[in-house]
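Hi R.,

Here's the input for the dinuclear copper ion complex you asked about:
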Amino acid sequence: MKQWLRKMRIVSVLAFLALILSGCGENYLSALKPAGEVAEQQYDLIMFSLAVMTLVIVVVTVIFIYVMIRFRRKKGEENKIPKQVEGSHKLELVWTIIPIILVIILSVPTVAVTFSQGDVSAIGKKDADGNPENLVVNVRAHLYWWEFEYPDLGIVTSQDLVIPTDERVYFQLSSADVKHSFWIPPLGGKMDNNPENINKFFLHVDQEKAEEANNVFYGKCAELCGPSHAFMDFKVKAMPRDEFDQWVLDMKNAEAPEPTTDLARQGEEVFNNSCITCHAISASNDAPLFAPNLTNFAEREKIAGILDHNEEELKNWIRDGQKYKPGNPMPEFKKDAISDEDLDALAAYLMELKVQDK
Ligand code: CUA
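And here is the predicted structure with dinuclear copper ion in place:
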């Protein structure tokens, strides 16, 4: 009975693991489904190390089983002691040299890839016309949201990182408060956002792989930074260069949109009275930086990085922000601060903040 129970316990643990781990491995989220040059090299390194380690495990296991069987105490030979090999120079050399060779085999490709992926000398290079050769994005992490500044293009956005496919994009990572870490599992990384220095690296998205993921990848904060660390998500929209150029143009030309309904017009007033001191609705560089830029809010994938993008969730977020992201610095707007009617109007207005498909 007891043994049967124990067996069932193992089976149920395995079934549970299978259930939760089957959520991993999606194209938009998994480091095991690399979608670009950097992630592919890192994936190859993981697989190569795994192969070497598997080989070691197999060899050791085979020797272990052989020794167990070969040197078992047999009937009639109870007192026989096999030849003792303690202090054998030959054996000592073998099990010292083989691991050294394995470490060298592991370290050569690892060091080579580390140095080639750490090469950010292309940042700041100009072509013959004096234009930057590569796209650079300054990523500033905040409790608990992400700001993306394109210094050479003069635009700022937040929460949804937009990048072109099939070229290297260089990132300069920093933080406005505590340590965070910038991680887009299918694209590679991760790397820390520190308040005291700027870390640099590059990523690359394959257009074909981007299409498989419907052009949206998930990004995460990978450094425990506070009570809402686990909710510090962002999205990556990867698109061909010409579409990206169009997006940049639309962002640069974005003007505060004219509200299309009376409700949205009322919402604009609420926004100008309550929100605009922290939230910018212009993508230009000199916008305030202590809250997410909302220029293209209506085109975001999620509300606050985690909630479905609809008016209902938007209103929930404004009313009860602490419920969804504990410890986040945005004040909650309870009924005494903003009436139901004003909240409806505000949501209607925010949902019209678009730079494309107007
Ligand atoms: Cu930011 Cu964890």
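One thing worth noting: The chain has a mean pLDDT of 90.

Cheers,
M.
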